[in-house]
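Whiteboard transcription, Tuesday session. T.W. wrote the C-alpha cells on the left side:
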C-alpha cells in the first residue's frame, strides 16, 4: 500500500478503529489500500454519495477525539479531508 498524502495516512489509521463496522467502511478502506491517490481530492472524487456521508460522520468523531487528545497535527490532517466533504 502506497499512500503519498499525509492526510490520507491519518485517515486510514483513524478508520482502522471502525474496520469491522460495515460495508461502507470496508469499501472506503479498500479504496485507500488499493488506489494510489496523490491527493485528498483524488480520494474524495472516488467516493460515492453514501461513502461521503458516512465518512463525514466518522471524521467529525475522529477530529473531536484528536482535539481532546491535544493531537493538533492529527486534527489538522483529518480536517483537511473533512473540509473537502462539505
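and on the right, the sequence the group agreed on:
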Amino acid at each position: 500500500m502506497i499512500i503519498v498524502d499525509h492526510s490520507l495516512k491519518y485517515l486510514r489509521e483513524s478508520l482502522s478503529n471502525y474496520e469491522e463496522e460495515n460495508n461502507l467502511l470496508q469499501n472506503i478502506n479498500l479504496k485507500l489500500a488499493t488506489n494510489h491517490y496523490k491527493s485528498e481530492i483524488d480520494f474524495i472524487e472516488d467516493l460515492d454519495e453514501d461513502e461521503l456521508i458516512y465518512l463525514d460522520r466518522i471524521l467529525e468523531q475522529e477530529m473531536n477525539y484528536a482535539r481532546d487528545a491535544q493531537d493538533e497535527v492529527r486534527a489538522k490532517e483529518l480536517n483537511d479531508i473533512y473540509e473537502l466533504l462539505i
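Someone added at the bottom: Residues 6-85 form one domain.
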